Amino acid sequence: MFFVCFRIAGMKVYLGIDVGSVTTKLAVIDEDGKYIDSYMLRTAGQPVKAVQGGLSELLKKSLCDYEVCSVGTTGSGRNLAGALVGADVIKNEITAHAVAASVIVPGVQTILEIGGQDSKIIILRDGIVTDFAMNTVCAAGTGSFLDQQAGRLNVKIEDFGSIALQSTSPARIAGRCGVFAESDLIHKQQLGYPVEDLLYGLCQALVRNYLSNLALGKELLPIVTFQGGVATNKGMVKAFQEALGCEIVVPPNHQTMGAIGAALLAMEQHQFTNEPTKFKGWQTKDMHFNSVTCTCDGCSNNCEVISIVEGDIEPLKPGEAHKITDVKGNLIARWGGTCGRWDIG
Q1: Window from 99-103, 109-113, 117-121 with minimum mean pLDDT
Q2: Which helix (H) or strand (E) covers residue 56, if one does?
Q3: For the CA atoms of the chain, what is the radius of gyration?
Q4: Is pTM, for the whole model, over 0.90?
Q5: Is 107 left (phi over 0), alpha (psi -120 to 50) or beta?
Q6: Higher model confidence: residue 246 or residue 137?
């Protein structure tokens, strides 16, 4: 995720970009930290193109030119995005989500966040993160699990929540493992369970998985917020409310909370330091980037080192391999080694 500060008719604004494995989000806030606009698109395995596409679409939506004051990035692709755009702030998702929730939902003490490929829980006390946990392993605890099973039941993911809420006797789906959950779903589907009971059973299974893996041993106190793309699913919101016995607050811009948090962090740093931004300009959206992977033979680790270059990379002959020292041109970033010998950006 990254932040940038603009001036709209004399008003400064900041931008945050959250590059995730499934989606890339961009959000703009004003100098008081108030939300102005956002844009979300699929990362589609191409984070560079996603960042460029997001910048382009955000500019198309804007009513006037932006003057960039500060830039910040977050998400799993935060370092890459930061190198591309010239980020002033690069922060992890835990910090970004916590900051956004603290500002948008005053008094929040528990943050539930479920994305396409991972899930998180963040515990705050007096606005400070005191504990957190992440799950990047079990597919049964992520949004992709619901997406895949909805497809199996021939239900559009957009309709998942509304149909699930029609359930009167939800199916008990095994949710500890994605493979077992799918087998259990198929079995109950063959037994003739109504679709709505299967869907809400899946919601309950994911909630059980989430709470048993991430919330184990943690005190979940209200106010509780639910963030991330899965928070759009009303069935999931209801399942969490039943499991926790309290109201679940879904922020208006729950899908872009990471980007908003990144923007808030960029704004905070800029207002504190008043330093000029490192932002490389909106022309970044039109630049041509390439990446090349080389193996470092400096030691027995044989690390794979990735180089990001502006412009084209000289093609190799069949059977040849790039050497790190052969990668020329405008080198934007390089990382991947254990020792950091080749790292740039």
Answers
A1: 117-121
A2: helix 47-61
A3: 22
A4: no
A5: left
A6: 246
What's the confidence (pLDDT) of residue 95?
96
**200 Cβ partners below 8 Å, 6+ apart?**
164, 165, 167, 170, 171, 235, 238, 239
Nearest residue to 23 (alpha-carbon basis) of 2, 5, 60, 50: 50
Note whether 131 and 204 are within 8 A (CB): no
Q: Is 267 left (phi over 0), alpha (psi -120 to 50) or beta?
A: alpha
Candidates 120, 119, 123; CA nearest to 110 is 123
For 156, the enclosing helix (H) or strand (E) is none
pLDDT at 4 > cutoff 70: no
Burial environment of residue 139 by CB neighbours within 10 A (0 to 12, 13 to 18, 19 or more) = middle
The tokens describing 267, both together, are 């704004």
Tens of pLDDT, residues 134-144: 886 666 667 77
Q: Quick one: tokens of 159?
A: 């309709």
